[in-house]
Structure formats: C-alpha cells, structure tokens
Amino acid sequence: MFTKILIANRGEIACRVIATARKMGIATVAVYSEADKDARHVDLADEAVLLGPAPSRESYLVADKIIAACKQTGAQAVHPGYGFLSENEDFARRCEEEGIVFIGPKHYSIAAMGDKIASKKLANEARVSTIPGHNEPILSPEEAVEIAKRIGYPVMIKASAGGGGKGLRVAFNDKECFEGFTSCRNEARNSFGDDRVFMEKFVEQPRHIEIQVLGDSQGNVVYLHERECSIQRRHQKVIEEAPSPFISDATRKAMGEQAVALAKAVKYQSAGTVEFVVGKDQDFYFLEMNTRLQVEHPVTECITGLDLVEQMIRVAAGEALTFTQADIRKDGWAIECRINAEDPFRNFLPSTGRLVRYQPPEATMVQAEPQRFGVRVDTGVYEGGEIPMFYDSMIAKLIVHGKDRHEAIAKMREALNGFVIRGVSSNIPFQAALLAHPDFGTGNFNTGFIAKHYADGFKAEDVPHDDPLFLVALAGFIRRKAREREAGISGQLPGHEVQIEHDYVAVVNLGGGRTEQHAMHISEFAGALGEALVKVGGKDYRLVSRSRLNDVRITGTVNGQPFTAQAERGTAKNPLAYRIQHGGRSMELTVLSPRAAELQALMPYKAPPDTSKLLLSPMPGLLVHLAAQVGQTVQAGERLAVIEAMKMENILTAQQDVTVAEVLAKPGESLSVDQPILRFA
C-alpha cells in the first residue's frame, strides 16, 4: 500500500480524498494555485505545493507541474479527483512513465472510453445501442449547422473531453447551433485543453440514469447499482439519488450487466460510470463512460456501504476486489443536493466573494465511514473563506440517507433549512422548491423537468410553503423575546422602563413598495423555557425554542412538531427588519406596535434609480468580449458582451433595439455585480 499520495485537484473532492487517505494511514500532498493558497484542502493535507497562477490552464491543468510536485514530495501515487486532468489519457500515461501510480483507470481505458467520440465508436462495435449522431470532430460552426440539419433538430453539441456540464449545448435551430458550437468549443479549450466537439441527436423527455462500476487488475468488475441524475439545469446535475424511482429491477440488472460488459471490453480498472439515457418505456441507450470518480458518488456509498475512494486506492495498489456482485447491497435511499454559489433569482448567475457566514447542518455521517441513515456534508470551504471566480461554483454537497425515499426527502428538506450561507448567494431556495414539487415527490420527472416547470426562470413565489404564517409567528416570537431582554436591562429611567406588549403588527415587505400587515397577539410567554403562544391570522402557534437571539439557525418545536429555520435582524435597507427563512421561502418583515405600524404606513416609498438605459454586469466575472461600440445600433437579441465566470461563458444580449451611447468597461476588466458596461441613448 502507498505511504503518500498527491491529490491533483482542489476544493471539495480534494478534501474528500484526504479523508479516506487519513483513514487508511496514507500521508497526503495537496497542490494549489495562487487563488487557493488559503483553501481548506491545503490546510487539511500533510504537505502542499504551489502550482502557479489562478487560471487552471496555468496551474491545475499543467501535467508537468503535477508530476514535478509528486517527485518533489516523494508521492508514490496521484489521485486526480474529477474534472481537470482526471480523464486525460496523456497525463495518466505520463504518470506511468514517470513511475507514479495513477489512481484511476489505465491510460488505454481512458483513451477508449474517456474520449466521448472513441467510446461511442467502441460501443457501436460492441453492438451497444447508441443514439444517432456525428462521431467525428466538427471543425467549424458552418459544418456544425449542416450536420445538425442532417441529424434533425434538436441536437446536442458536446465537447469530446467534456464533463460536469462544461462544453455542452443543446440547439433547436441553425442560429443556436452556430453560436452553441463556438461557445462549446471555447469552454472545452479553457476547461480541458481540448477543443474537439461532436454532435448527437437530443432525445426529448429522457431520464439520465448512470451505473457505477468498479474493476480491479485481476479482471473482476462489478456494478454498484444506479444513480438517478435526471434533475438537471443546463445539463448540469442539481439533485442525484440512488436508487432510481423509475426503473424496475429487471432494467437495473440489464443496465448493470451491459455496463460491466463494456468495462471488461476495455480492461477497466478503478471506479467508473456508464451513463445511459432511458426512455419512458425503460428502453436505454449508452451515452458515454466517465473514467473517473463522479461528483455524486456519495449516494452510491450510502446505499452500498462502500468507500469508493478507498476502493480506487486499493485497486491502484494492485489489490483485488474483496466482494462479488452478489455481495453488493442496496440499502435505503440516498439523495444529494449540489449547493452552488449562484443566484437562483437572477437566472442562476455565478456569485463569488467571501463566505461571511458558513454553517452547514450538523453531520451525522462523515466521509470515508460506513454510517447510515443520516446527514453528510462534503465541502471544500469554510467560514471566512473566498469563493473564487476561476473555478466551478460548488460550495458543498449535502447528502442524506433514509430508510426510504419519503424519509430521505424529508431529511433533505430539514437539512436545507439549517444550511446557513451568507456573503454569496446560493441555490438552496431552488433546491427546496424542487424537493417540495409534487412531481418530484412522486418520481414523475425527466431531464426536462426544470425547463418545463421553470421556463420563465425561478422567482420567489415559485417556492411553495405549507404555512407562510409560521414565518410571521416566528418573527413575532423572536421580537417578543428581544423585548423581554430589553426590559431586563438595568439603569432604565424610572417611569420610562421598557414595557412588554402583547399585541404586535407584522409588516411584510412584498417588494416594490408593497406591504401587507398581520395583527399578532403573544401570550403565555415563558422566557426561561423559551415558550410562547402566538395568535396570527386566526391560527395558534405554540412555539418552543432555546435558540439565542444572535443565533442565525433557530431550532425548536411548533405545535409539538420540530422545526429548523433561519432568522436575522437588520437588512441593508431596514435595520429593524427581520429576515426569516424556512422551507426555501424567505420573508422580510418588521414587527411593530400597532401605533408604529399605523405611522409606518404613512411613510413615502423611495423608488430605486432607473437603470433601463444601462447594461449592468449581472455577476462578478471577466469581461472577455465587447460586441458593441459607441454609436452602434443593436437589435433585440443581438450579442452585447461576454462575461466569463466559473469556467462558463455568459452572453449578454440586447432586450430591445438600442443605440450605444457610451462604453463604460473594457475587455479584460474584472467586473463586479451591477457594474455598468454600456449606456444606451
């Protein structure tokens, strides 16, 4: 067994590998870019080596620097994680030539299956059913359009070396195909150093289901059941679960056996994933094989009890699998939510910056350990750390394991309630809305689920809540508790002491100057026990909570049922307001005396400034291209600028016909949120 390994990655997956290595008594070496010098994986590892500047093409994608770091530190093996060089045939071969063990498949397996074009050819030769497409690299956008016409729209444009949703576009017409090809190739070049692109027919209303396989150097290969990955946005997975609520045992067995046969055909060693598109009648077609560890591997670990990173390390060290297919269990139900730094209310644009607060829910399962039926958090960040603009947007992976799917969904919803993130926006409200959607609850969904139900984007009102008045009652409870503490402060002027009221009015901010009021009566308050009876909207809420006033995460019971919520006092515009969050719903409200509420209703509303004649940067990022100049007339739908953030190109287009009056930013400039780029006449 190895005594020291190097992790050629960053963030969450680097921390994940370190956890297993530590359990196995193996020393670890981290590598990092200048942007990651204070990152969590650097602190956790036994040693760390600086690779270079922040851009991945100058650090994490430079094989020579990774190999030099292995030799410098005496690391015997390298674990590539996922992304970056994890599916790079040349890197795997170089490691072998330099006497460094690559903790993953052999380079010839990566060549055969990691390359999307080569894997599809091999699948065809093996008589595996594949989707119609063009398997040769496409050289120009014009050629892409001609090929798309032959295949028939819609088509999927995919980078040969792609993964994780990078370098992938779906086109429904010639214009989308032309532009999608260019963006796809640019993203592939920047993220993977390989700009080859191919195309295939896009199967509408499909399920995306993948089979986890594991092979050793003795020729043993098993499948570890399936993962349901159909909840996707822009072809990036949002929620994954194991097993799938859709396929039958017979389909599961057939898919697993086909995945194993494919892996054996290329003498596959290590963990890998065979991805399938599954039709409504459970017909399935091979898509591709990912010759690496998947982001969503924890859900498989939960239901099988196996540590996949440990298995990868043992296989790389030459050990044989110690179990057969018959030994693989399928226990309970696991769900993973990807918690990303993005703003779901602004079309999921990237959100970078400092994590002012970061308090994940309490973990009852940990990485590299076989605990079951609990909550697990895989993360590479910490409170006070930075979310840089140079890499992907993942903050953490939240995983739950329940005895069945119903219990797993309930656990996940409660865990999301207690996940505190401040300083950057996160997709937690969107995750909460998805989990509460009735079609998700019944398993009635496919890869078009998000596009269908959120075609016009995601808005606050899209987050359902069983009882919004509970948020009002909780704010009243907190305000009443604060008043009791204020009344206990010594040195108050005689005759002017703080009086504790029983009647309040909650003024809810609906946005745009609109408000609604709710009268509340709070009685039977027992401060020492943290208990009160709140009457609002004709309903009674008996609240019990020992949480302190400065706690963001509030736990307790309401009418005897446990709850977890988040509460803070003071917003940017109103220092007296409360912001209450629960079930994905966020509510801003002020709790006042009845007289104060009457007076507030008379206050004028100050409208925000008019920005209709400005093009504002919707996210922090790098302005890589400016398509408009002063005096130019731009038609609605035409490109104005391109901003790169978190390895994704974001195209800003004109919403109406406009004439450019002034250019306010230059290509190459780092932009902040809402920074003006253009002014229109």
From TrEMBL:
Residues 606-681 form the Lipoyl-binding domain. One of its GO terms (molecular function) is acetyl-CoA carboxylase activity. The keyword Ribosomal protein does not apply. Its EC number is 6.4.1.3. Its cofactor is biotin. This is propionyl-CoA carboxylase. It comes from the Bacteria. It comes from Pelomonas lactea. It catalyses: propanoyl-CoA + hydrogencarbonate + ATP = (S)-methylmalonyl-CoA + ADP + phosphate + H(+). Residues 120-317 form the ATP-grasp domain. Residues 1-455 form the Biotin carboxylation domain. CDD domains: biotinyl_domain (cd06850). Keywords: ATP-binding, Biotin, Ligase, Lipid degradation, Lipid metabolism, Magnesium, Manganese, Metal-binding, Nucleotide-binding. Pathway: Metabolic intermediate metabolism; propanoyl-CoA degradation; succinyl-CoA from propanoyl-CoA: step 1/3. Pfam families: Biotin_carb_C, Biotin_carb_N, Biotin_lipoyl, CPSase_L_D2, PCC_BT. Gene3D superfamilies: 2.40.50.100, 3.30.700.30, ATP-grasp fold, B domain.
